[in-house]
Amino acid sequence: MNIYDIDDETNKLLTLDNFLNGLTVPEFIEQLSKDHSLKSGEVNSVEYLDPKPYIRTFESTLTQLKKLSEEGNAKKQKSEAEVSQYEILHSKNVLKIASIVDSMHSKFTSLDEAVTNVSSILSPLGESLQKSVKSKENLSSVVFLVRCYNDFYKNGICEELDELQSSNRQQDNKKCMSTISKLLKFSEKLISNDLTNSKECHELILKYSENLEKHLLNICEESYKNQDFETLRENSDLLFNFNGGGSVIQLFINQSEIFHQEINDINDNIADYDVWSLFKDIDNHKFECDRKSVELFEFIELSIKTESRAIVKVFDNSIAVLKIFIERIYAQILSNRVALLLNYSLKVSNLTYVRYFYCLYKSIAKLTSDLKDFFATNELDDNNDLAAVLDQSFSDLFTGYKKNYFESEHKSLEEIIYSTVAKFEMINEKLVKDQKLSQRIKKFNKNSGSDNDLELANSINDTATISTNRLSNTILEKSKLSSLSHFINSHLERSSSTKEHQKVIRSKILNEPITNTGNNYNIQMDFDKVDRMIMATGESILRILEITPAKSSEYFLRILEIVIVGIGKSYIDVALEVSYNVGIIQQDYKNSNYLNFQYLNVINQTNEILSVISSMVKSVILPLIVNSPQIKNRLIALMNGYLTRCELAITFIMKDTLQLISNKIAFNLSKQKKKDFLIKNSSDLELIQENTEACEETCLFLNNILSQLLRIFGLKNQNLKKLLIEINFILLNHLLLHLKKFQINENGGLVLTQDIVRYQSVITEFRVGFGDDVDDEFEEFNVLREIANLFTVQKELLPSLMKEGRLAKLKPYVVKQYIMKRSDYAK
């Protein structure tokens, strides 16, 4: 054997039956070469690879592979020849069998038709046979029934039925009960005068059936008490076969503990409950059902859950029994309890009634929901039959009460609001009798559309703008007269004696009470009362939403009407009317050192109350009626209409207040003496340390206004800002006209300048808290300083003075009107 021949192990891999034995080609080549790698040597200490063994081994392998390929090709050709022969043979067999298959198919079709014909013949026979069997059974049953009747008729007893009844086999017991049921109907039909004693026989059978039913019911009762549900189930099945199970169902339900507890005693003395005082308390908003009702609801839930498990064990049709059980609890126990509590609560008050109605409604709704969850969780109500019964029973429980529920809710809210505002209305009854403010509003609404009325409606918002525009034609910039700067600065600081004098007068004015007509009145609204009415309204909305959701949109509209009539017309409108009467109509600015503006606090209160009501409408009511667009539009129109009326009332109060202030300023300025500004001697000027009387009274009046308005409105209030700006322009306009009434000499001009500085210091205080926002409005007052300068400078300087500062912006004829009042103008 050649050393390079393939070894036996490799030959085993080169066969058709086990080619390579799962080795890959690289693995096979590596196996061929593994022995040759050991035969390497060294030449001159250098390793080298001898290729000869590899070449010879691979050549031998290729030779063997070639032989293997030839062998495989030969087998392939042989197999192909055999396959061709078998295909020809198969085709011949198919052709031969095809005729046989056709013949068999034809025979099968004929056989199928024959079987069909036989079936059509046998089918009526089968039906006839079934009828015959059924007739035989019926005949046997009828024979047995007649035999039993005959036994009762002749002997007064039927031993066969007694044997069936006493048998230990459930099937015999069922047959006994079924036979008795049929026997009762059969004997009743046989009652006639032709058959002697037929009636007595029927009564005998009836008595037998009653005794048997009573016996079975007694067994069921004992089984229930002993919790022997297996025996109870067997006997209940018998009674179901006898009379549909009505008696055993009634027995089972009557045995339930819920119908025998003192907790559902309708004769309970509910008048002694502690909860009534809480429910009728308007200011109390935390209440719940009485303790006994809560215990009853808990006991009902526990009883239904407990009995439902027993019912499932006893009755095949447990759903039907549970329905009856639930309906009876709702219609009997809960209905009696609800009627008892609601009837008594209505005697207490309408508020107590609607509150207790809501508590009962929520409590029983929760009970119903918990029971539905229980049945669903325990897979006792796959088709939601019990859920439907619970919902219907709950609905039926309150249906009768819901018809008149809202009327009670309506009366309750009216009573709360009326009782809250009644005293306020009564105290102010005489003052609101003439309806002065309401008459102004009606007149405005009647004449609405005219330019004057529109200007009046927007007077508070636009007063500053109107006044600014009125003066903008004459005053466009602010400046100071350099020639009088030292004089002005020296008079901005009062002497200590002057300050003390002003303090005495100011204290006297601030402490002087407002003139009273002799009528008692209350001009201040109580926010605690408003909170009470708003809380009551919120309660009503919540109850309506829960109890009558279908009609909630309509009811919300009526609730808002109550709020507007009660809180609005009977409280806010009365306060505004009294404010207008006391503050505007009754105040006598001529015989009083000052005006009392405390009535303006009603405006703040009105705004706050309207804000609360508007917030309630926007955040609570409107989102709840989004699906009722018509009612929503009516509600919005109702609310906006009342807000508009209140805005008009406030506008008239503010407008007439400004007019009252204007009249008072004009009255004070009318006290100005002509000689105040005609001082002939300079020595007389040095004796004058104080402002003129008219100036001092006017400034003290203005200080008093500012003090009162700050107390009423507080800093940063927009109403305060608008009022102060408007008062600024009122004073400015009066002074501009006032200076045209007096002859003024040079010394008188200095007195005038002193008065103007005083006015200026007061008006400067009016800017308190508003900073740069009111610069333009208040700086316009500086024109008075420049006008005063017209009376103090030499007449030669008048032309140049007229071209300086704010005077340059005035029309020449306006400036000339003041120059004409110089005492030396004629010269």
UniProtKB/TrEMBL annotation:
Residues 51-164 form the Exocyst complex component Sec10 N-terminal domain. One of its GO terms (biological process) is exocytosis. Keywords: Coiled coil, Exocytosis, Transport. GO terms for cellular component: exocyst. Residues 175-826 form the Exocyst complex component Sec10-like alpha-helical bundle domain. Pfam families: Sec10_HB, Sec10_N. It comes from the Eukaryota. PANTHER family: EXOCYST COMPLEX COMPONENT 5, SEC10. Belongs to the SEC10 family. This is Uncharacterized protein. The lineage of its organism: Eukaryota, Fungi, Dikarya, Ascomycota, Saccharomycotina.
